[in-house]
Amino acid sequence: MLEEKKPKAFLLENVKQLRGHDKGRALEIIMKKLKEIGYKNIQYQLLKAKEFGLP
Q1: Does residue 48 contact residue 14 with C-beta atoms inside 8 Å?
Q2: What is the arithmetic mean of pLDDT over 18-22?
Q3: Do residues 38 and 6 touch, judged by C-beta distance below 8 A?
């Protein structure tokens, strides 16, 4: 969908341990694919629900 619609910005929800899954390869594949389809300023950040008052 991102490749076809090309939104200027988007948010992907992380799943638990995505950064560590398969020794980090899963996240690397996602980042590589985003770059291949034309996204250049890719950023990610780990947010903790409890810091936003959520369980």
Answers
A1: no
A2: 88
A3: yes
